[in-house]
Design goal:
- There is one protein chain.
- The longest helix has 20 residues, at 16-35.
- Among the domains are: 123-173 and 286-334, 3-Layer(bba) Sandwich (FAD/NAD(P)-binding domain), CATH 3.50.50; 175-284, Polyamine Oxidase, Chain A, domain 2 (Alpha-Beta Complex).
- Mean pLDDT is 86; it is low at 1-13.
- The strands form 3 sheets. A 5-stranded antiparallel β-sheet has the order 6-7-8-5-9. A 3-stranded antiparallel β-sheet has the order 1-2-3, with no helix packed on it. Strands 4-10 form a two-stranded parallel sheet.
- The chain has 13 helices and 10 strands.
- It is 40% helix and 17% strand.
- Strand 2 and strand 3 form a beta hairpin.
- It is globular and about 65 Å long.
- It is α+β, with helices and mostly antiparallel strands.
């Protein structure tokens, strides 16, 4: 799919038809690619705050993108400065993103931090002295402060009766499922260059987009190298499949992914390798009113003086970068220090 936006040369008075095209093509694709969600249900203020600020500043999202939305404080570090100087558009790790949690585990355990594995949390309860009792599978522990990075809906089921209003608010933060299909082709070439492309729901309700992995990170192609692409499936199509009782098999997702790669990229030969993963309820949906839910939750925690901090994808950003920043700020707040910018 190619998007072409033609802007008036005079006073930049955007016509309703152009606005409709941007909404039905660009914004629909963007919402599906980032959130696997419906652009008519998501909150622009919560999902894309820079676009919201553009509209507030210049009365139009398109005008805001053209004229700029002003500078807001940004996190700063040597790595961030390098990324800005070199104009990174995306990043990964040499051994894949799984290296990130592995490195965190090594860093923490080497400093005496206990990491409990295979012990799911069964519930949280408040003790008389204001501490938390964390109930595990067959044991428990106490904590002065809890930072929760689990999905909001999961946390809502763990909270005690004293936090019922918070639990009700968190329960309304739903999530979408996405099937990720990694395909590798021997001796194939892509007809286009770039990071990938997104697909509007009007063009294909099942395919959210395709990432051109070999172009973005060719050093991960392996040996012998092969062309790698990732097809993302989800949205209303996946919801309809589930509602109809269809078996969500690996064969179904692979068939849909291969068809998309063939029709959209011309990769008509069968792939040499295929990996399929269905991630259930993996992307939180920031629907209309999401920011108000967060304000209500923050106010409740403050008024009740509950030693609990919310972090992770359910609240203020689903991307890896945003989750890292969310965790950093949550730790700073728990320690009572101002997060460095």
């Amino acid at each position: 799919m190619r998007l072409c936006t033609v802007l008036p040369s005079a006073a930049l008075d955007l016509s309703p038809s152009l606005t409709l095209q941007v909404a039905s093509l660009a914004m629909d694709s963007l919402c599906r690619g980032v959130f696997a969600g419906n652009s008519r249900e998501l909150s622009i203020r919560s999902c894309f705050p820079s676009l919201f600020q553009a509209e507030q500043t210049h009365r139009s999202i398109l005008l805001g993108l053209l004229l700029g939305t002003g500078q807001s404080p940004q996190p700063d570090s040597a790595l961030v400065r390098q990324a800005r100087a070199e104009r990174w558009s995306q990043w990964s790790l040499r051994g894949g993103l799984e290296m990130l949690p592995q490195a965190l585990d090594t860093h923490l355990t080497s400093r005496g931090v206990s990491v409990l594995r295979g012990q799911p949390v069964r519930g949280l309860s408040l003790q008389a002295e204001g501490r938390w009792k964390v109930s595990l599978g067959d044991s428990s522990l106490e904590a002065d402060h809890v930072i929760s990075a689990v999905p909001a809906s999961v946390l809502s089921d763990l909270l005690p009766a004293e936090a019922a209003p918070l639990a009700r608010a968190l329960r309304t933060i739903t999530a979408a499922s996405v099937a990720v299909v990694n395909l590798q082709y021997r001796g194939a070439r892509l007809p286009v260059q770039g990071f990938g492309h997104l697909v509007p729901s009007s063009e294909d309700p099942g395919v959210l987009g395709i990432i051109y992995d070999s172009i973005a990170f060719p050093e991960q192609d392996g040996s012998p190298p092969g062309l790698r692409v990732t097809v993302m499936l989800g949205g209303s199509w996946l919801q309809m499949q589930e509602a109809s009782g269809c078996v969500l098999s690996q064969e179904l997702f692979q068939q849909e992914a291969e068809k998309a790669a063939a029709t959209q990229l011309g990769l008509k030969e069968p792939p040499s390798h295929c990996l399929v993963h269905l991630h259930k309820n993996c992307i939180p949906q920031y629907t209309l009113g999401h920011w108000q839910k967060l304000e209500s939750a923050t106010q409740f925690l403050a008024v009740q003086r509950l030693p609990l901090t919310l972090a992770g994808a359910s609240y203020e950003g689903v991307a890896v970068n945003e989750c890292i920043e969310s965790g950093r700020q949550a730790a700073a707040r728990a320690l009572g220090i101002e997060p460095a910018r």
